[in-house]
Amino acid sequence: ADHLLEYPTSHTEMNWNEFFPAYFKEDGTPVYPDSDVSSVRFLDVGCGYGGLTVSMSKLYPDRLTLGMEIRVKVSSYVHEKIQALRQHGAAAATPEQLAAGKPTLYQNASVMRANTMKHLTRFFGRGQLEKIFFLFPDPHFKRAKHKWRIISPALLDEYAYVLRPGGIVYTISDVLVLHRWMDSHLEAHPMFERVSEEEIENDPAIYLVKNSSEEAQRVDRNGGRKFLAIFRRIVDPDER
Ligand code: SAM
Predict the structure, then answer these.
(1) What is the domain range of residue 35?
(2) Measured in Å, how far apart are the chain's first and last C-alpha atoms?
(3) ipTM beyond 0.90?
């Protein structure tokens, strides 16, 4: 249950060493300060079995990607998977890479068991994230359950807060009513604007959004459609 989840009182108290030991020292200070790998930049909300988290970390070796997943067994599965991938990554590294002292493959991927609907701002500071992913979230069809949907006006305020200006929210679903819900809430929110088709086509992350997660592969097997809604956190001229 939720009361067993651990979370810091503030993102500044958060020690990421447990999650990214190659990037944070035991006392929690970054190994590479003033760089893009000094904090988590990509967040996979409800990462499930972690297909996107893992493939984003490979595509973007100079960013830290975190998956958040509420189910205990599923998050432990992803944890084990990443540990195994890290071992393979270390074993496959060339002597030159090892001599350069840079982290090997998948050290920049991690998973946390967490309820993103509750504790997001305990983990991330204002403007910290560059990308947030919502891949095939649970539809919660019944009206009484709509409050459990992972996109809502109140939660969009939080996502806008933790995203840097210009940061991107990616949503995808095979459930048309849920897609319309996410799309219309993002469209209506003053801090988000729609990303153009052209920009979407040129975004290397899109292929992974459509294809890398376990749920995307299930939709393919069942011959379902995939609906994308992709929005940018606006650059507000009044913001300092
Ligand atoms: N994104 C993955 C994919 O595309 O394969 C998983 C999709 S699955 C249908 C939705 C996932 O979101 C489930 O694993 C569920 O446990 C997780 N989830 C639901 N609510 C959550 C919450 N509040 N915080 C974190 N994870 C959540």
Answers:
(1) 2-79+108-233
(2) 39
(3) yes
